[in-house]
Amino acid sequence: MLTGNDWDRILKEEIDSESFKQLQAFLAQEYATRTIYPSMVNIYNALRLTPYHEVKAVILGQDPYHGPGQAHGLAFSVQKGVPVPPSLQNIYKEMAQDIGFKIPHHGCLTGWAEQGVLLLNTVLTVRAGQAGSHKGMGWEQFTDAVIEKLNERERPIVFMLWGRNAAQKKPLITNPAHLVLTAAHPSPLSAYNGFFGCRHFSEATRFLNQQGMNIDWQIED
Predict the structure, then answer these.
(1) What is the pTM (predicted TM-score) of this model?
(2) How high is the pLDDT of residue 1?
């Protein structure tokens, strides 16, 4: 049981697949011999905190933060007390410009997840200090399955795909009920190439309001 909610049933075919079993064997070896982020108990936090039937929006990143104490299973989020990483600082800056967001003093996005924002990375684990080190090891197939199952949902969802790895999922979202927004990744390397000014948060809010849904993006300090 990965999540303890409806994702376990919805993803059962993927969880039972040979490729997922191979991924689990790879991860067992990695966690036993290296420092891997996030901790094993936090790998599926995004799915655990945002059940399938509650998803209103998906923010899709790349792979977890690879510094000590940063990743805790939610894309772009860090626990309170951990310095806010540059990518999240840039997300906050864009939100301040776009929707008048008041920038908090921490980077914990759990409140979004609990409101139906699935904070998913395309790859869910990483070696310490080695960005992209678990790319191509099987996570992409698993997160493809997550996106495909969300695509089947009748109730509309907003997908925010940030960066090249996230944008590669766009062909999986074929249901015209959903809104798909793409932009550059918010990292300092690419934020000025199309993330700043993307206005995804106002677009998402407008779309969700039209469907009778709402997300309070403001984060309490």
Answers:
(1) 0.97
(2) 83
